[in-house]
Amino acid sequence: MPLTLIKFPPAFGLPDPSPFCIKAEILLKMSGLPYSIELTGNPGKGPKGKLPALRDGGLLVGDSEFIRKHLEIVHRIDFDKGLGPLQRARAHAFARMLEERTYWCGVHCRWIEDSAWPVMSATLFGGLPPVVRRIVPAIARYTVRRRLRAHGLGRHTREEIMALGVSDFAAVSAELGDRAFFMGQSPSAADATVYALLAAFAVPPFDNPVRASILATPNLVAYMDRMQARYFA
Ligand SMILES: N[C@@H](CCC(=O)N[C@@H](CS)C(=O)NCC(=O)O)C(=O)O
Q1: Closest ligand 1 atom, CA of 63?
Q2: Predicted model pTM
Q3: DSSP symbol at 9
Q4: How many other CB atoms sit within 10 Å of the CB of residue 148?
Q5: What mean pLDDT is predicted for residues 6-32?
Q6: Which residue's CA is the nearest one to ligand 1's atom 16?
Q7: Which residues in 129-147 are b (16+ Cβ under 10 Å) and which e?
Q8: Nearest to 166 by CA among 132, 118, 217, 122
Q9: Disulfide-capable partner of 165 in 69, 149, 208, 210 (CB 3.0 to 4.6 Å)?
Q10: Ligand 1: residues within 6 Å at CB?
Q11: Residue 11: C-alpha distances to residues 7, 80, 93, 200, 222 (Å)
């Protein structure tokens, strides 16, 4: 039964505006399994109201991490083949940092920064009919602001949020060192997350201190080029 990745359409020069959808797509590419893509602007198509989701026969798996688990358990893909327990633990910790903390810094950069909002709004909501377009973006931005406050990151000042993002990618750079991929000389699951988050911050429409720090870090820039050439050439 073919696999179908349900994801958002490409945006901002990225294969997907969502780093979680980029992560899921890289995992599928790493797996070597055949898959097709279904594009939607409606996260309600995922079983948990978010994207990505993976359809496998009659099963709909929501959340990039459960998609990974599904590929590992049902399709017997070992993304971390060759990694020892300590490397697996480090990869796990970095991925959780990027997905559960750094991601929210990216949400601030895209949704809250006034300089980013026009391009964000036009990209996500530009296709709506004129009357709706005047209301829906404002409601969506308000909802995201509330989520950021609920997470906790939205309670910090802009300077504090940027400093947290910069420190996360400094840690990524230190861990990566001069390795070709995050955990060694060949790709593993962590690369799907690390690349997805780096790419989400590095795209041109969103200019902020976190993006500047990434672009000023040679091993991160070389790593992004390497990953892009390998998975999205
Ligand atoms: N933990 C989830 C996060 C997925 C997620 O946050 N997706 C966002 C896009 S980046 C989404 O679909 N948001 C729609 C919404 O919240 O309404 C995963 O790893 O897949």
Answers
A1: 20
A2: 0.97
A3: P
A4: 20
A5: 97
A6: 50
A7: eeeeeeeebeeebeebeee
A8: 217
A9: 210
A10: 18, 20, 43, 49-52, 63-65
A11: 12, 30, 28, 10, 22
Domains of the chain (ranges; CATH) run 3-73 (3.40.30.10), 85-231 (1.20.1050.10)
- Average pLDDT over every residue of 155-175: 98
Tell which one of 8, 18, 143, 145 to mutate to probe ligand 1, the residue whose CB is within 8 A of the most ligand atoms: 18
221 neighbors 214 (Cβ within 8 angstroms):
yes
Q: Which atom of ligand 1 is nearest to the CA of 107?
A: 10
pLDDT reported for residue 134: 87
Tell me what pLDDT residue 1 has. 66
Mutate to test the pocket of ligand 1, among 20, 124, 144 (most ligand atoms within 8 A of CB): 20
**Ligand 1 centroid – CA 79 distance (Å):** 22
Burial 43-82 (b: 16+ CB within 10 A, else e): bebbeeebbbbbbbeeeebbbbbebbebbbeeeebebbee
Asked if 225 and 233 count as a contact pair (C-beta separation under 8 A), the reply is no
Average pLDDT over the chain reads: 97
Strand ranges (E), the chain: 3-7, 35-39, 53-56, 59-62
- Residue range 190-227, pLDDT digits in tens: 999 999 999 999 998 899 999 999 999 999 999 999 99
Q: Can you give the pLDDT at residue 2?
A: 87
Sequence-distant (≥ 6) Cβ neighbours of residue 217 within 8 angstroms:
169, 170, 173
Higher pLDDT: 127 or 175? It is 175
